[in-house]
Write a structure and sequence with these properties.
34% helix; two-stranded antiparallel sheet; alpha/beta; 24% strand; 5-stranded mixed β-barrel
Length: 291
């Protein structure tokens, strides 16, 4: 069972980054030299996804422009003989990748955003990637979604990325509990959206990567509004548990919470240090700051 479609919910207002996000989408904020959304799309592409479905709002046009052809720029680079930069620009959207955009008229929650993509997904398994969560696979290893895609092919059931979170952060996450199912897998028995620490079933928090079977759409559509008065994806997955196995996947790699300013800064520093061209000079600069 291959996963060839992915939904990117990108209709949020990005209020935690105001005023930087007043006139540009938070997903277009750069980490070193690429916008957040490009990291997520590249991760999906590496996992075999070729159909990228963006659930957008009316203020998210720059995302569409980013993955479109920029004729004037490409001509200017070609005439200037800047072949490396031309390849960088063209690599943003490979020829075999399709980008589709659908509007979410109201911000009614992550579950509602996913439901907006149902007609484009059809009766196929699909991935969901939250660009706020910048996921970096282990050095020399697979990206996170590619790890999950392998597990999905083996199990044929929904797979959700999880990580252990500090007790004082539990209330910020969907939390899962279940039984070990071999290797990095946990068969989920319970999933709860943003519980208080004293009633949370575990400290295994859901990260922003999902591979879901299409049965989740019916569960989302038929559920009442949950935490915050929103249609929660977590509640839809909880409904799916009643009729299908769902697995949590303890991924290898690191997650940067780029929905927070602290996580965004951490991602910029650590990915700059790992950059093959910028890393050495930036490391020397940081050493000088410590003197």
């Amino acid at each position: 069972m291959k996963v060839t479609k992915a939904i990117f919910p990108v209709a949020g207002l990005g209020t935690r980054f105001l005023p930087a996000t007043k006139a540009q989408p938070k997903e277009m904020l750069p980490v070193v030299d690429k916008p957040l959304i490009q990291y997520a799309v590249e991760e999906a592409y590496a996992a075999g996804v070729r159909e990228m479905i963006f659930v957008t709002g009316r203020h998210k046009r720059p995302i569409e422009d980013h993955f479109d052809m920029t004729f004037e720029l490409e001509v200017a680079l070609e005439q200037a003989g800047k072949k490396e930069l031309l390849e960088v620009v063209r690599s943003v959207k490979p020829d075999d990748m399709e980008c589709i955009y659908v509007r979410q008229a109201q911000a009614l929650g992550l579950g509602h955003a996913v439901l907006c993509g149902q007609r484009l997904v059809g009766n196929e398994p699909f991935a969901v990637l939250l660009a706020d969560d910048l996921m970096v696979g282990p050095q020399g290893g697979q990206p996170v979604l590619a790890q999950m895609a392998t597990a999905f092919r083996q199990q044929g059931r929904s797979v959700i990325a999880v990580q252990e979170v500090p007790e004082d952060q539990v209330h910020k996450y969907g939390i899962v509990a279940g039984e070990p199912a071999g290797g990095p897998l946990i068969r989920i028995e319970r999933i709860v959206e943003k519980p208080k620490a004293n009633v949370a079933p575990s400290r295994m928090g859901v990260a922003g990567r999902y591979i879901l079977t299409p049965g989740v759409f019916d569960e989302i559509r038929n559920q009442p509004r949950g935490v915050g008065g929103e249609i929660q994806l977590t509640d839809g997955i909880a409904g799916l548990l009643r009729r299908e196995k769902v697995f949590a996947y303890r991924y290898e790699g690191k997650r940067y919470d780029c929905g927070s300013k602290e996580g965004f800064l951490q991602a910029n520093v650590e990915l700059a240090l790992a950059h093959p061209d910028l890393g050495p000079g930036f490391r020397d600069y940081l050493r000088q700051l410590q003197l």
